[in-house]
Amino acid sequence: MSESTNVPDRVERFASYLPTKETRLGYLFWLSRPRFWLYLGGPVIVGATYAAGSLGELFTPLNIALLAFFTVPANVFLYGINDAFDADIDEVNPKKEDKEVRFRDDIWVMLVVIFSGVTGGLFIFLVPPIAAQVLAAWYLLAVEYSAPPLRFKTKPFLDSFSNGLYILPGVIAFTAVAGELPPTMAIVGGWLWTMGMHTFSAIPDIEPDREAGIRTTATVLGKKRTYVYCAVCWLAAAAAFTTVHVAFGALLLLYPVLVFGIAGSSIDVDDAYWWYPAINTLIGMTMTLGGLWVLVFGYGG
């Protein structure tokens, strides 16, 4: 195979252009989990798309600012807090060896993390009051998922439930455009989806968390029952989204199908876990394209 067609070589060359973990900028880049940027930023795109009545309402300075904040600064804030309070746990987590970074006790890093959070607080003056309340809920969950006194991540089932924070940027964006909340069942479906996604992502951490004495939904249920829990969350999410539109429910059925396939095969969940940024991006893109089609052409376009 020639060099021009060698995909691993091209990926390796691309990775060489990314900042290294040794520099402050590189550390902050990897701390923000670039693979997961769209977990917060993506819902903004979907929410704004389905709230907009025209392309002009979609591409507003406020929507662009929300997307920019939830794509990078919000992730720096969220994961910076997470890593600061998980420093001891992460010492035995092999995931921190290559794909992520361990906490660096650097005052400048923490100042950037705090500043990243403060910038998002400015939206309280720019969005409708109900969206400002949702933003406050996002901050509460983003901080208390990792930080005392609540530290939801160490409380089985509350760790799962609190990860509804990932759908809230979409609720904020929808409300900022439409002036009202999205359909209730869309919020319920999105929340259930995040619960399943969070708990699935905790499966590779079962042993490190047990070694560190951390109790999570996954450590309590064990690997096999956690698969079932994720499937139930995702089936419920699909059912909820079906009441909004049958196409949404059909898309969400991919998740329980995948989890049953992984559980019943020899696929290592530690490897499968890293497929999901691409899977989630494709699902979100499909939802967005459907919304754009309706926005531009209408149902009968």
Lay out the secondary structure.
Blueprint: H1 7-16, H2 24-31, H3 37-51, H4 55-58, H5 61-71, H6 73-85, H7 87-90, H8 95-98, H9 107-121, H10 129-144, H11 158-161, H12 168-178, H13 184-201, H14 206-211, H15 217-242, H16 246-252, H17 254-263, H18 269-272, H19 276-297
Structure notes:
This protein has helices spanning about 5-15, 25-30, 35-50, 55-60, 60-70, 75-85, 85-90, 95-100, 105-120, 130-145, 160, 170-180, 185-200, 205-210, 215-240, 245-250, 255-265, 270, 275-295. It has one domain (about 20-295). The chain is mainly alpha-helical and about 300 residues long. The longest helix has 26 residues, at about 215-240.
Quick summary:
The chain is mostly helical and 301 residues long. Helices cover 69% and strands 0% of the residues.
Structural shape: globular
Q: Give helix and strand order, one letter per element, not per position.
A: HHHHHHHHHHHHHHHHHHH
Number of helices: 19
Straight-line N-to-C gap: 45 Å
Rg over C-alpha atoms, rounded to the nearest angstrom = 19 Å
Query: What's the helical proportion of residues?
Result: 55-70%
The domain tally reads 1
Q: Strand content of the residues, in percent?
A: under 5%
Low-confidence stretches: 1-5
Instruction: Please outline the major beta sheet.
Output: none
Number of strands: 0
